[in-house]
């Protein structure tokens, strides 16, 4: 049978050239497989050795903030009070529980222990507001000090309602009025009101210039009402430095209390930057006051002096309030509230330490307010006739 056409057959010797070349090629493939196996085994051995070294490697000890020298143990009572403005007992028993900081579940990130956070903030309050001076307590950076001061201040400010409260009980009001009367025989006084300026950095924004006071620097106009023992009864610290004292008082909670007649029969004392109101008595202005008015003014000046005494003691105990607070506005407000809370704790614990005098910013002059409403002036005249006439 004849087959027409050409049949092509595959011959591997056409590619390899010869049978010997084919044998050499097979041997070459086997050698490559052998090299790959040896390399794989070598890699496994190296990985095992590396894992063994990692498991047996001696770890270099890291700096642990909790190992820093504890001021509660390393300092004497005198040294501790000088640096932190409070006794050890007051810090441990009264102030530290207010923070309610939870110990971290692990040492990841080497967190600052809660007690050292509190001491860092206390030293900041007791300095001129320079965070760099607080870094040596725990050996941390200025940025960490900034976060710690903010956190501690916010926690203390949250406790303000517990430690700053205007008296409401009749017995307590009577007790306060009697203490004020012992000062200069001015009756029915339940509190003295006054304002001071706390310097701050510019808060920025479109309303930044509102914080520039008449002396030309940025500030917060802080109003307080204090009792006869310089305990803060009411605090308002959110008004810019350009606001007059009168406006701060008109928008304060304490004014709302008196306006609602909750304290009928009791009065506040203020200087002439406030208006004369039925419940807020200010000095009588004029070139020729009557003898009764002079006696009233003398008793008023002596009794109201507790406000200036408070501001002096407050700023000397916490010098950060005398110098510019270099923080965000919200943090500055929290620091002011925290220092107010700490002041009342110190007074309650009779923990009074000698403060330090720091050159204060120039005092902001106050503008005499109007004489007040007609009813307030009439009530004051009747009050003077009743209590200060011979």
Sum this structure up briefly.
This protein has 2 domains: 69-158, no CATH class; 164-388, no CATH class. The protein has 15 helices and 5 strands. The chain has helices spanning 13-16, 19-56, 71-74, 77-84, 88-99, 114-125, 135-138, 142-158, 160-163, 170-184, 245-250, 253-259, 291-317, 329-348, 374-388, and strands at residues 189-199, 219-226, 232-240, 267-269, 280-281.
Task: Walk me through the structure.
With 390 residues, the chain is an alpha/beta fold. It has 2 domains: 69-158, no CATH class; 164-388, no CATH class. The chain is 49% helix and 8% strand. The chain has 15 helices and 5 strands. Strands 3-2-1-4-5 form a 5-stranded mixed beta sheet, sandwiched between helices. Strand 2 (219-226) and strand 3 (232-240) form a beta hairpin. The radius of gyration is 38 Å and the shape is elongated. The protein starts with 12 loop residues before the first helix and ends with a helix.
